[in-house]
Amino acid sequence: MREGTVWTDPNSMNKLGKFIRIHFQGSKLAKADIETYLLEKSRVSFQLPDERGYHIFFQMMTNHKPDIIEMSLITTNPYDFPMCSQGQITVASINDKEELDATDDAITILGFTNDEKMSIYKLTGAVLHHGNLKFKQKQREEQAEPDGTEVADKIGYLLGLNSAEMLTALCYPKVNEYVTKGQTMPQVNNSVSALAKSIYERMFLWMVIRINEMLDTKNPRQFYIGVLNIAGFEIFDYNSMEQLCINFTNEKLQ
After folding, report:
1. Which DSSP symbol is given to 254?
2. What is the DSSP string of 173-235?
3. What is the extent of the structural domain holding 209?
């Protein structure tokens, strides 16, 4: 074993890449840490017919843990949430109820507090609700305006923010301290999608940081084994920027 020994998994079909270091001092385990990159954010809000969204969405909707349904204000029907149901909603080889148990147990074992765990589920639910926000075009204007506030109120509750202010920010984003810009329907819809992807990404990266903190020790370290798990090489009729970057990275690694 030498410092920096790396194994690659080029056939992994994940939606992100990660590099895991397992540190040793002599033959004793010292610590571990994770680096993540190329998170495929586009799949949060868009899937091709043969793709599936992030598994956590479907795990939560199994109703295997009813308190998750209640706290995140979601239903048990993936088709109620167009943001995650454009592609496949089930996978024959995956039992979402068992996976939810494994996910929930892992969060606890890694040392997340109960409040942190509940916040993770609430944020994930808020991401799903973004796809149900409705807007309409003002009469005789190109400006978009909210078409109801029920969904925004759910998002506001889950994120701990004022839903009216959120809708105003989506329809009239600030250019600077004094000037706002009215948005058209396509612009607002793009903003909603970008916001959902950003929330998911920031939550994901925060979880990685917290996991690294929990796996850290003050033990001296001399060697590490590195495991590179790169996202899968895939060619579709439509390829997102993330997918093109993933394919390019895989080609360079090969």
Report:
1. -
2. -BSSSS-B----HHHHHHHHHHHHHHHHHHHHHHHHHHHHHHH--S----EEEEEEEPPPP--
3. 5-253
pTM of the model: 0.86
Pick the closest to residue 94 from 127, 46, 57 (CA basis): 57
Here the CATH number for the domain that contains residue 131 is 1.20.120.720
Q: What is the pLDDT of residues 8-47, one digit of tens each?
A: 333 334 467 788 999 998 888 889 999 988 788 888 999 9
Contact assessment for residue 16 and residue 38, using Cβ atoms and an 8 Å cutoff: yes
For the chain, what is the domain count?
A: 1
Q: How far apart are CA 11 and CA 251, in angstroms?
A: 12
Q: Which residues lie closer than 8 Å to 102 by C-beta, 6 or more apart?
A: none
Tokens found for residue 9: 């998994």
Is the Cβ–Cβ distance between 250 and 233 less than 8 Å? yes
CA torsion through residues 78, 79, 84, 87, sign? positive
Task: Assess contact for 90 and 53: CB atoms under 8 A.
Answer: no
In angstroms, what CA-CA distances link 95 with 11, 58, 59, 84, 89? 22, 10, 9, 18, 12
